[in-house]
Design goal:
- It is a single chain.
- This protein is an alpha/beta fold.
- The protein has 3 domains: 5-108, Class I glutamine amidotransferase (GATase) domain (Rossmann fold); 117-302, 3-Layer(aba) Sandwich (Rossmann fold); 315-416, GMP Synthetase, Chain A, domain 3 (2-Layer Sandwich).
- The protein is built from 14 helices and 16 strands.
- It has helices at 16-25, 39-44, 70-73, 94-108, 117-132, 145-158, 176-187, 198-205, 211-233, 245-250, 285-294, 299-302, 322-341, 394-407; strands at residues 5-10, 29-34, 48-54, 60-61, 64-65, 79-81, 136-140, 162-168, 192-196, 236-240, 275-277, 350-354, 360-364, 367-380, 388-389, 411-416.
- It has a 5-stranded parallel beta sheet with strand order 9-8-7-10-11, with helices on both faces.
- Strand 10 (236-240), helix 10 and strand 11 (275-277) form a beta-alpha-beta unit.
- Helix 5 (117-132) packs across helix 6 (145-158), helix 5 (117-132) packs across helix 11 (285-294) and helix 13 (322-341) runs antiparallel to helix 14.
- It starts with a strand and ends in a 13-residue tail after the last strand.
- 40% of the residues are buried.
- Keywords: ATP-binding, Glutamine amidotransferase, GMP biosynthesis, Ligase, Nucleotide-binding, Purine biosynthesis.
- It holds the Pfam family GATase.
- ATP binds at residues 142-148.
- Catalyzes the synthesis of GMP from XMP.
């Protein structure tokens, strides 16, 4: 790695990701590591210029007060206590904190502002070539931002050693499988294999209501599909994934409880027969987009709305049924059409519909109905760690409601989710 690095050691603070992002915004690379990292492990990391101990007001993890080893305090790089311990409390004001970080990173540590996408891409190309050699890689290509950027990086690094596999698991948005094939096979000339696995996935998910179990089933089944495709192709040793930093942080570390398992972090089977290639795993979402732009991907791909790996499976709440899944798909298509017509598709970071597994009484054609509600969600965020709710004009909400209740079978109510992250998460499951 060519970039200087500032380490953040997690002592229980909820601001770890925020501080890491603020340091990266200064042009210096930063990573979060657990509090019990050893001095030998620190020294094994490249170009560490300073360490920040970040524990909030209490330095408590799972009810236990924690600290780093004494060796860390006595190491040969500067150490900053970024919490409320000691004589100099960490500033709560964002501007003041930015000045304190800048002074520590540049004035105390002497770090260079050499964190940029060109250097990141050069590093990753070198690391990918070193890891893969002359062997072949299989990539799960959903067509979303993360997998698309991974594909571009791998094409730059290893060219035709990459095979892309697009799996239609029945949990994609309306028209999405056809669009993925058209863009990647026809326009980008990628070596793309299309797999229709709709029945296979939905059969595995039948009757499964617990969200984490659904995610793990979807993740494990993805790997099984890839193993089968790899056996057909022969000579595939690596599986590439679009894992990004929020996936890892939210799936839990030694010092932080999991928010939720991500299918590409917590759902991988223990007997995985591939070595993983995850070149984006230390990037936040906006950095992934910047990487895609630097690689020359079109804006329509780089700024495409994010879509979870488990797809509509985490938006069809509870046990997935085919009719309710179609209600999610159809209502989502209406929401996207109306947001595009209103000019919100380029403004709102993520917007989607959710259909829960309960019904309510309603009236249609002067008759009683007992149908599902559709929940609308529209949020804005920079890094997917926090999110605010979009203030959608009420007339537009009324129009969307009228279309969904008229056009989507089995639906009689439309609700709008006003909850930011935190306390909610972006997705419902």
């Amino acid at each position: 790695m060519k970039q200087d690095m500032i380490l953040i050691l997690d002592l229980g603070s909820e601001q770890n990701a925020q501080i890491a992002r603020e340091i990266r915004a200064l042009g210096v690379y930063s990573e979060i590591h657990p509090h019990d990292i050893t001095l030998a492990e620190v020294k094994a990391l490249p170009n560490v210029k300073g360490i920040i101990l970040n524990g909030g007001p209490n330095r408590v993890v799972d009810g236990v007060e924690v600290d780093v080893s004494r060796d860390i305090y006595n190491c040969d790089v500067p150490v900053l206590l970024a919490d409320h311990k000691g004589d100099a409390p960490w500033p709560a004001d964002e501007a003041e904190r930015g000045r304190a970080l800048s002074n520590f990173v540049f004035g105390v540590c002497g770090a260079q502002a050499n964190w940029n996408m060109e250097n990141f891409i050069a590093d990753q190309v070198e690391l990918i070539r070193r890891q893969v050699g002359d062997r072949n890689v299989l990539l799960a290509l959903s067509g979303g931002v993360d997998s698309s950027v991974v594909a571009a990086l791998l094409i730059k690094a290893i060219g035709k050693q990459l095979t892309c596999v697009h799996v239609n698991h029945g949990l994609l948005r309306k028209g999405e499988p056809e669009q993925v094939v058209q863009v990647f096979r026809d326009q980008m000339d990628a070596n793309l294999i299309y797999v229709d696995a709709v029945d296979r996935f939905l059969d595995k998910l039948a009757g499964v209501a617990e969200p984490e179990q659904k995610r793990k089933i979807i993740g494990a089944e993805f790997i099984r599909v890839f193993e089968e495709e790899a056996r057909k192709l022969e000579g595939i040793d690596f599986l590439a994934q679009g894992t990004i930093y929020p996936d890892i942080i939210e799936s839990g570390t030694k010092t932080a409880k999991a928010v939720k398992a991500h299918h590409n972090v917590g759902g991988l089977p223990e007997d995985l027969k591939f070595e993983l290639v995850e070149p984006l795993k230390m990037l936040f979402k906006d950095e992934v987009r910047a990487c895609g732009a630097a690689l020359g991907l079109p804006d329509s791909m780089v700024y495409r709305q994010p879509f979870p790996g488990p797809g509509l499976g985490v938006r069809c709440l509870g046990a997935i049924t085919r009719d309710r899944l179609e209600a999610v798909r159809a209502s989502d298509a209406i929401l996207r059409e109306e947001f595009a017509a209103a000019g919100l598709d380029g403004k709102v970071w993520q917007y989607f519909t959710v259909v829960p597994d309960f019904k309510s009484v309603g009236v249609r054609d002067n008759k009683r109905t007992f149908d599902w509600p559709v929940i609308l969600r529209a949020v804005n965020t920079v890094d997917a760690m926090t999110a605010t709710v979009e203030d959608v004009p009420f007339p537009l909400l009324q129009k969307i409601t009228a279309r969904i209740t008229a056009e989507v079978e089995g639906v009689n109510r439309v609700l709008y989710d006003l909850t930011p992250k935190p306390t909610g998460t972006i997705e419902w499951e």
